[in-house]
Amino acid sequence: MKIPKRSQMISVSVLITVVFLTTTVFITSCNREEAAGPETMGKKPLTEGKPKAPEAPEETPEGTPEESPEKPGNTITLSKLSLEKYPTITTYLLITDSVGKPINVINIENIKVTEEDQPVGDLKIDQADPVSDPLSVVLAIDISGSMAGTPLEKAKLAAEDFVNLLNTGDRAALVTFDQDVYTNVPLTEDKEALIDAIRGLRHKGDTALYQAVIDSSNILKRAPDGRRIVIVLTDGINDKANSLATKEDSITVAGTARAIVITVGLGGRIDANTLKNIADETGGRFFHAPAPEDLQQIYTLISEQIHAQYRLSFTSPFPERPDRAIVLHTIRVSLRYGGEDVMGSREFLASTNPPVDSGTLEEGSILRLLIGLGDSILYILLLVIFILAVTILSILIVRAKRTRS
Fold first, then answer.
1. Where are the beta strands (DSSP E) in 307-377?
2. Cα-flanking dihedrals φ and ψ of residue 112, to 5°?
3. Strand runs (DSSP E) across 154-293, as ranges?
4. Tens of pLDDT along 281-298?
């Protein structure tokens, strides 16, 4: 039995549509798996060389305020790496003891810096200062319903103390978030304006944690070059937000803003693994406050740490950056202090493909960008094929009608 030409064309059209939709769904599912985090791309940890914790939420034990328990002893943390004057590379360095107190006395002869296990040249280390290394901080505070009462009141006191500890020339902004994100005060040196806004905070709504990190980082894109820091406080998880932002989105935007994200988790309902991951990926640190009364101590410690940063600069042993390839390099910093070796490391994309407009190497986020661009190209090709198939079928239909006529 011979099938009519019209039926054949309809069948082919339906088949092409099914193939197109199936392929699209497949690519989308693959993209979601790849977007689960940089660890799925074979990416090394960015700081201290420690393995990443699983992403499942965990109950944080009650106790005294502390930094991440995964970082015992003396610790070195490296911020984002700047390539604006490559082969000179610049970063900010924080060295703390076992209780998080900054180590301020550093003999440059005791510091060793390598890139891919090759010694760097022209090593310089200086204490960061407000003039050459201006400090811009965004205080992002959770004002969701669960913060009602003592938690929010203690958070306000801690934030106010932090503002009072800012040095002349330091700038700060205030961001709050429930299911939405609000910029209460833009970047300013006006401490009174910041404190007045902090004192007027009221609780409401749910928790848009990831969007808060994104909006806070975007504020810092307009800040002067120098130290850019987001301090985000939350007592819960990202829930019921009026935003589709993901954890990966927040890390990527912080990277493009060259912002360090310091996370503070209050109580036992937090997703400690997520907060640690955001901090580690951006060169920040995670703090846990078991009780609201611990917040002032933690914010004071954070102030001490960010005012004790060092500017580290050196010449790369690789004067030519690879082109048209994905090449990852690792910077390692080691220091002999207190009878022990203290080490820190940071992995970065060393190639010029894709080019980095800001001159800053965005670890992880550039790899996600490459994957996203690849998916976009595939989507466009599939769409072009689909349009061509529909066009050809339309032409065949028109010709068949003319033949019948």
1. 310-315, 328-337, 340-349, 360-361
2. -120, 130
3. 171-177, 181-188, 227-234, 260-266, 286-289
4. 999 999 999 999 999 999
| pTM higher than 0.85 | no
Two structure tokens written together for 25 = 């769904």
Query: In this structure, which topology does domain 135-306 adopt according to CATH?
Result: Rossmann fold (3.40.50)
C-alpha separations of 210 from 175, 236, 240, 264, 318 in Å: 13, 12, 11, 14, 36
What is the CATH architecture of 74-128+310-363?
Answer: Sandwich (2.60)
pLDDT (tens digit per residue) in 133-142: 999 999 999 9
pLDDT in tens, 244-276: 899 999 999 998 999 999 999 999 999 999 999
SS3 category, 169: coil
Cα–chain-centroid distance for residue 225?
18
Which range in 18-22, 40-44, 236-240, 378-382 is most confidently predicted, on average pLDDT? Answer: 236-240
Q: Rounded to whole angstroms, how far apart are CA atoms 3 and 211?
A: 56
E-assigned strands of 105-259? 111-115, 118-119, 121-127, 135-142, 171-177, 181-188, 227-234
Phi, psi (degrees; rounded to nearest 5) at 68: -50, 125
